[in-house]
Amino acid sequence: MENMILDCAIIGGGPAGLTAGLYTTRGGLENVIMYEKGMPGGQITQSSEIENYPGVTGEITGMDLMIPWPEQCQKFGLKHEMSEVTRVCKNENDNFLIHTSDGKSQEAYSVIVCTGSTPKRAGFAGEDKFFGRGVSTCATCDGFFYKGKEVAVVGGGDTALEEALYLAKICKKVYLIHRRDTFRASPNTVARVKSTENIELVLNSAPEEVYGDAMGVTGIRVINKDKETREIGVPGVFTFVGNNVNNQVLMQEDGNFLCELNSAGEVIVDLSMRTSNAGLFAAGDIRIEAPKQVVCAAGDGAVAALQAISYVDEKLNH
After folding, report:
1. Which residues are annotated as catalytic?
2. Who is most buried in 32, 69, 71, 268, counting CB within 10 A?
3. Is the whole model's pTM more than 0.85, yes or no?
4. Which ranges constitute the DSSP H helices of the chain?
5. What is the pLDDT tens value at each position of the chain, 318 positions in all?
6. Regarding the domain delimited by 121-239, which CATH topology (the fold level of the hierarchy) does it fall under?
7. 19 with 68: CB under 8 angstroms?
């Protein structure tokens, strides 16, 4: 296997990478390796309950949802390599070189990068302890569990305000906690938030601690600029303080990137998941405007795979 050129290298084993693996192998590409140093499945495996994956009903955890995926992909010939990719670059043959942390490198005709993103932590006490048990970074995933209840949202950017508006439709009341008294979000979104009756602004305030019991979160304590504290009793706390895009594998030795990124570090793709570098595709949360849903990441993986098949076919047969 050592010196054989891969038809496709897939980097990352979440829903996007696994689906890309399924579609490339089933679609006729012979040598496909998915590089994932940990357990395949991605961020969603941390989720305690999934209700919005089409066709999957009943109580199911994120882990349960993802368990059958790797086996299904491997049935069609996808190989899983448990090593960490450090860099992807292009060589003089216009192919890609995949460098891994063990010092090896592997040549590939096409690459699909599915390394995802990681929600930033807001950094208050109890945040990690109650993550997935009342603390969430995804309103679309978890908002419905608080239907008719009160929740708190932490953050002041566009995402925080848009998610607060989303939650306000489902929940009885939303407390929006922001450390300043002005917002970084677009004026239009700010105006909508201010005119939404069941959103209460808790400004010039920062979360100090989220607390709860064996069942999960019961409240959040905030402290304002005058050092006054306030207890807000809620079963759910949503934090939106940004994402770290896992784009490190695309960084070249000279500090530039293998393809174009936007200012947030997300990979710029077209509707076919093509990047600015021919043969390089990006799928899932690493791409611009990713909805951060399993169904969308999987869809991206399928789209990228179909494009990779065409690209490799043309490259080898023209």
Report:
1. 138, 141-142
2. 32
3. yes
4. 15-26, 62-66, 68-74, 139-142, 158-170, 187-194, 294-317
5. 457 999 999 999 999 999 999 999 999 999 999 999 999 999 999 887 888 999 999 889 999 999 999 999 999 999 999 999 999 999 999 999 999 999 999 999 999 999 999 989 999 999 999 999 999 999 998 999 999 999 999 999 999 999 999 999 999 999 999 999 999 888 999 999 999 999 999 999 999 999 999 999 999 999 999 999 999 999 999 999 988 999 999 999 999 999 999 999 999 999 999 999 999 999 999 999 999 999 999 999 999 999 999 999 999 997
6. FAD/NAD(P)-binding domain (3.50.50)
7. no
